[in-house]
Amino acid sequence: PLKIELPEGNHQVQINAEGYKTWQTQLAVEPNQAQSIKDIRLQAADGILALQTQPSGANITIDEKFVGKTPLKVKISANSEHEIRISKAGYENATRRVQVATGKTKKMSVDLKPIKGVIRFAVEPADAQLVLDGKNKGKVPLELELVAVSHQVEIIKKGYKPYRTRITPRPGFPQE
Questions:
Q1: Do 112 and 55 meet the contact criterion of CB atoms below 8 Å apart?
Q2: Which of 36, 37, 42, 41 is nearest to 22 (CA)?
Q3: d(CA 156, CA 134)
Q4: Beta bridge partners of 26
Q5: Over the stretch 57-102, which tens digit does the pLDDT of each residue have?
Q6: What is the pTM of this model?
Q7: How far apart are the two ends of the chain, measured CA to CA in Å?
Q8: What DSSP letter does each residue of 104-165 carry, written as one string?
Q9: Strand 105-111 to strand 47-54: parallel, antiparallel, or no bridges (unpaired)?
Q10: Do 67 and 61 contact (CB within 8 A), yes or no?
């Protein structure tokens, strides 16, 4: 317990303790008027979740609230279980449960499982080069299993006009 005298006016009151969140309130002090603040219960300090995914850029929700994209460091209430949902286009959703101790950092790494579809390339002349998302994939004809997100396709051969398009593989439905 603490008794203090304060001058008349508005005052910010804070109470700190290691391992706990800071408690604060605004107090209006009037002359010759005693005040008391009772039943203050400090809450345990948050923990920190440091989350990475492979690949990065996955959307993260904690207890059904969107908190950002990976890589990510986020404060979460300590000593209670939280549901982490991870999603990224072209990858299976992942769910994890996590609990972090007061004032501690917990590192978590999740490898996302790709959802893939098959694309077959039939091109005339047959020895043209296939460039996928800026990377040379070799000569066509070619069959590739790709993550089910939009890809930039370019087919080039000296002496011919390049062909460019975007394609999104559909799992379970091979495309040509």
A1: yes
A2: 42
A3: 12
A4: 12
A5: 999 999 999 999 999 999 998 888 999 999 999 999 999 999 998 8
A6: 0.70
A7: 77
A8: -EEEEEEEPPBPEEEEEE--SSTT-EEEETTEEEEESSEEEEEESS-EEEEEE-TTS--EEE
A9: parallel
A10: yes
